[in-house]
Amino acid sequence: MEFGTKHRRRNRHIEIDCPYPSSLQFYSTPPNGYISLMDFDDLAVERLKVLRTVERVNLSGQVKNSDDWVIKLYDDFNKNKYFVARTEKISDNKRDEAEAARRRDHISHFILRLAYCRTEELRRWFILHETDLFKARFLHVSKSNQDNIRTFMSQNNLNFTPMTTGEVSSEKENLVSGTYNMGSGDLQERTFFKVPFTEALELVKARKVFVKGGFAYVPDTDLVTLVTTSFRAHLSQALAQTNRALPQLDDDERLVRMLQDFDKRYTGSDYTEKKKGQGHVITPAMIDQLASKSFPLCMRQLNDVLRTSHHLKHGGRLTYGLFLKAAGLSLEDALHFWRSHFTKVMEIDKFEKEYAYGIRYNYGKEGKRTDYTPYSCVKIITSSLGPGDAHGCPFKHTDASMLKHKLLGYGVSQQAIGEIMELASKSHYQIACQRYWEATHNATLDSGINHPNQFFEESQKFLNGDMPSSQGKRPSQVKTNRVVYSAQSTQSSQSTQSCTQSTPDMSQNNDESHFGDLDSDLLAQYMDSQESS
Ligand code: SF4
Prior knowledge:
Elements: E1 2-3, E2 15-16, E3 33-35, H1 37-59, H2 67-79, H3 83-86, H4 95-116, H5 120-144, H6 146-155, H7 165-170, H8 172-178, E4 192-196, H9 201-205, E5 210-212, E6 215-219, H10 223-245, H11 253-259, H12 271-278, H13 284-294, H14 297-309, H15 314-327, H16 331-342, H17 348-354, H18 356-362, H19 377-381, H20 394-397, H21 400-409, H22 414-425, H23 429-441, H24 452-463, H25 520-532
Parallel strand pairs: 1-3
Antiparallel strand pairs: 2-3, 4-6, 5-6
Helix pairs in contact: 1-2, 1-4, 1-5, 2-5, 4-5, 5-10, 21-22, 22-23
Bound molecules: iron/sulfur cluster (SF4).
Residues 296-298, 377, 380-381, 393-395, 429-430, 433, 449, 452, 455 line the site of iron/sulfur cluster (SF4).
């Protein structure tokens, strides 16, 4: 890839010469051509949003690989007009659009490889979510366009050898009893592939296939697992290679700046701009009531501290002040609000001299006169706190017993507290926050939480009856799907995370003899080592 200068930025057309016969890609060949820095950034952010959607849906209780999981992902992709669904539109009048989307897919994948090859933790996150994205797309395409799948398979030499009729009939009984969900009547309709068991570890670990002599016998309904295993191995290797080549990029400061901390990039709405256009207004008199009904825990905590001690340290004033500004508090009202609290513990002169400047500064009326943006969840979660600071994300920065006590005090149910505490202990702070929203609103929230002002907006929309029909339904009206997540404690460990619900009920096929002499613990260890390599 070559990168354009400022002059080239005006040219929005991405010139990449690469044929895309299928909507699915193994990303074996890097794109070659010119791209402006602006397009480079746009593409990277779009793919980051796609992968974050995959992460959010995975953690929302959907059973991975299920039809609902794929539908939920595609609903989000379509709603946000991401490239994913457009890559599959192959009718004549949409061919150009599909080609352009496939180019976006191709280039954006390689850009994110540059950003996510840097550390083990980033690589794990990227491999997990790219693999899930690939799996969802494979499942979606295989339902509607088998030609697309065939083209993809042959293009990437994924030619798994089918068992002959003779082989199938000689193993008939083993195949029926050793394959998950396989009746003897189904056997004629299925094609089986005989592959080394290492290529079907996921299926072997879940005891979904018959294994003999080091080979797994995989039905065509599980082809996606074979292809996905291959995709993950390929990507893992490619990321290691990219990491080795990375020092070559160090000379280009523009790219280094752009890719550094890319994983922490905020990808939600710009609340400063949005509020200006929408003209939401809140007043100091409304704040306490809004805090108890609609503020996220981080802001509710700041409001509580302000009400009790009538003071906040610098970080708290900045975080809460910017949040209130984006929520619709005018500068005059902000001065009035802060003054009314601070003057309970200090002289008005001191407030005017030492604190009023900072409030006007937040509104762009002092100093650099920048209209500052409120902090996103990522910024708040990754901030470091000193003694006496009240800002920060309570799901991360508050001691577990205090957090539990606080949630109890806010009337959150025991069951919801259990879920929230578990999510927080596994570093899923934003998902814990989403559960908190759901528990306090007695409703579901599909969009996840990535900004305190988004939390507030979603709450206000819900309470004012202004929420799309797909969201905000009372739990009794919607199919809830609570899950217990596997015991992984850090974000980096998400690569091995799975929902217990995704494990099929194998009681009917739980006969150890079908797995020959393969030890299931050894298999699990082998799989883990494959995933972490
Ligand atoms: Fe606030 Fe975001 Fe933490 Fe929720 S996840 S408490 S909105 S920082």
